[in-house]
From TrEMBL:
Protein name: protein-serine/threonine phosphatase
Species this protein is from: Papaver nudicaule (Iceland poppy)
InterPro entries the record matches: PP2C, PP2C_BS, PPM-type-like_dom_sf, PPM-type_phosphatase-like_dom
Signal peptide: 1-18
Lineage: Eukaryota, Viridiplantae, Streptophyta, Embryophyta, Tracheophyta
PANTHER family the UniProt entry points to: PROTEIN PHOSPHATASE
Domain annotation PPM-type phosphatase: ranges: 149-395
Membership in a protein family: Belongs to the PP2C family.
Amino acid sequence: MICSVLMWSFSILSLSLYSSIQLLRLSTIICKYTPSLSSWRILLTRVFVHPKGIALLACNDQTDLVEKKQETSLRLNEKHPGFISNGVENLILQKTFNTEEEEEEESMKMISKSMVRKKKALRLVIPETSLREMRKEEYQKEYEIQGRDYCLASRRGKREIMEDGYGVINDIMEDSKQAFFGVFDGHGGRAAMEYVVENLGKNIVSALGEIVQNGEDGRLEKAIKEGYSLTDKDFLRQDVSSGACATTVLMKNGELYAANAGDCRVVLSRNGVAYALTSDHTVNREDERFRIENSGGNLSYRNGAWRVQGSLAVTRAIGDVHLKEWVISEPEIERIKLTTDCEFLIIASDGLWEKVGNQEAVDLISRENGSIQSCKKLLPPRGGRDDITVMVVDLGNFKIL
């Protein structure tokens, strides 16, 4: 009796399995020869990626199946170029075969994203001094540089990290008589100073190019102000609380344009006589005090100096997002025609000018003929709390006589 029951059960199971196989074969034949209709093409398909290709597990329309496998394989390779070549197995992806238009649109989106990832921004100019080079000097106590038409010496103060920086761009527009020089003094960290080193010179040169193309050579001051403004606005978007004083010199057409925002300074030697081309932006200036108080700012005396909102001793700088309502980035600009008696420039951070007078600095540079040794001699033998950076620029190459 038990054997009979087992035999009947086995027969029923075999018949069910046989019927299922026949139904599957019939479905396959129907799928193979049924014409492609949009209503039949919407089906979730599972795809296994193997080292040698793709296995399509289910599809209600197998017309042109080989082409579909190749198309799917290409798309997967574009999106994940290393999957098949690296032999990754058992990766399950899901793909919906909708209308041909939707497939093409999705493919274009994938290609566009790939192009965006691969696209690299072009550099307008390449500063002679890069940020990578400066980071090597971040923790150095002292260093000096001999460049073309300039020399520079810098000494770190009592802080652990150097917050001074500098920038040089030669041969602007492939003209050896056009150049950019800058010295920058950061506060509240290196972030603002590093950003200014990388971007201020390039932004000024970019604005300069637009003005020249428009035939507005007489409005170079506008290009400089636009460069300062753009650098400030872009840095403020980073929402970092540090700032940087900036002093720059632009050489063009036998003239120099000295600009500053903060307390770095440019001094010109003319026949051995010192002429300050910039004026420090501090609370000691009556016009700066009036501007800040007129805009609702508060001035208070703390740690030996008058400060904006009890915090910052300078009244102009790039950055300082928490004080931007009063500490503006607009530079003051002095334009000078380079004549035969113009000898050299001293561009330096306030760490120098707190200890050395303008004429004293010019006298020392003159005795050393503007060599790198002269820059080093301007660094006090006993460093103070503040960083000191001194750049001397020889004006001989930039004159048009």
